[in-house]
Amino acid sequence: MNKKKIAGLLLVGTLLVGGGALGAKAWFTSSAPVKANLVINTGKLEVKAVSDSAWLALNQDTESITNVEDVMSNAQPGDHFYKVVKIENTGTLTERVNFEANTDIVEKYKGAISVDVGDQATGEHLQSVILAPGESKEIRMVVSLQPEMGNEYQATEINLSEVLNSDTLIKVNAYQINDTSGQAK
Predict the structure, then answer these.
(1) Which of 171, 183, 178 lies closest to 47, judged by CA?
(2) Contact in structure between 97 and 174 (CB atoms under 8 Å)
(3) What is the pLDDT of residue 169?
(4) E strands within 16-167?
């Protein structure tokens, strides 16, 4: 093939490919805006301890214990003390409420005192509960003097408020129900 024919074919090929790519098409197009028309108001996650009772002795021999303004005297290993607390979901979202003993008490009195949370109605241990908005649950906080607590605790005062530097015996944490990090362990 001669050079003129090759150059001509190259020119025709370039025009065909290049012309198609440059958009010599006649397709119609149109567009329309779509308005959002959306306002999002987020819900509120809130839990409160709305009421609580005085501390009471829960052991078999309550006659030996005296209770004056939440000071239990003459307690012994194996005694249990409880307080009923009403927890309420005061927010707008359904929430998972977890209960956790304050770690300061658990560490300081390891082997001597235990702290537990139970369902007031059934007495069963509670790790978490799901509350709808406006719903409440009565829980029982129980402090137990362990039978194996030892002689070093004879005739001593165990002031839980001083250990805690606050009045927080049980931490009550609320999580939205679809938050997997807030699930009971």
Answers:
(1) 171
(2) yes
(3) 80
(4) 47-52, 56-57, 66-68, 71-73, 80-89, 95-101, 113-119, 128-131, 136-145
Burial state string for 82-108 with b = 16 or more CB within 10 A and e = fewer than 16: bbebebbbbbebbbbbbbbbbeebeee
Q: Which two tokens stand for residue 171?
A: 């931490």
Choose between 133 and 102: higher pLDDT.
Answer: 133
Instruction: Give Cβ neighbours of residue 92 (< 8 Å, ≥ 6 apart).
Output: 43, 44, 133
CB 52 within 8 A of CB 169: no
pLDDT value of position 166: 58
Q: Which residues pair with 83 in a beta bridge?
A: 141
Q: What is the pTM of this model?
A: 0.70
Question: Does 58 have pLDDT greater than 70?
Answer: yes
We find that the CATH architecture of domain 47-149+158-182 is Sandwich (2.60)
The CA-to-CA distance between both ends of the chain, in Å, stands at 83
Residue 38's φ and ψ, nearest 5 degrees, are: -140, 130
Backbone region of residue 141 per phi and psi (left: phi > 0; alpha: psi in -120 to 50; beta: other values)? beta
